[in-house]
Amino acid sequence: GSNQETxxxxxxxxxxKIDKEYIVIVNDNYIPRLVVSSIYxxxxxxxxxxxxxxxxxxxKLHGAQWLIKSIEQxxxxxxRIANALVELQRDFLDKGKGxxxxxxxKDVADRIDVHESTVSxxxxxxxxxxxxxxxxLKFFFSSGVGSKAGGKVSSEVVKxxxxxxxxxxxPKEP
Length: 174
Description:
Layout: E1 13-18, E2 21-26, H1 38-45, H2 51-88, H3 90-95, H4 105-112, H5 116-123, E3 127-130, E4 133-136, E5 144-146, E6 152-154, H6 155-168
Parallel strand pairs: 1-3
Antiparallel strand pairs: 1-2, 3-4, 5-6
Helix pairs in contact: 1-2, 2-4, 2-5, 4-5
């Protein structure tokens, strides 16, 4: 045995199929909600607070509100990325790994009208639970390999095909 503790992954996003539609859910239930205490607003409006105290609290209040808005914007961006993935990788969701399309950050960034670096930062260390399993978001951004038919096939599809060939080999005579 190992003395390392077991770590569980909590998906940041969930994709659930309801009837024939895929629904994206941002799984942020485990993240505490940030709110600014009303006490600070009362101090600002109080006639007993001096100008220096009011200015200090106003600056901190604006900083806190900016932080809360930034976190919400990040949540919205993650949601929009997941929706774009549902649209672009629908065949994967319906049929499995063999239907994963090659996709790059720019494809999604253009679709949701943000810079590719925004997409890159948003998906870093994030996981998504799909009807097909739990995947890192980066899984959906794979390079493509040219096919005989002239199209592109995801490198993940090629890897899966190689794994299948190896698994079917006679272990005594590979």
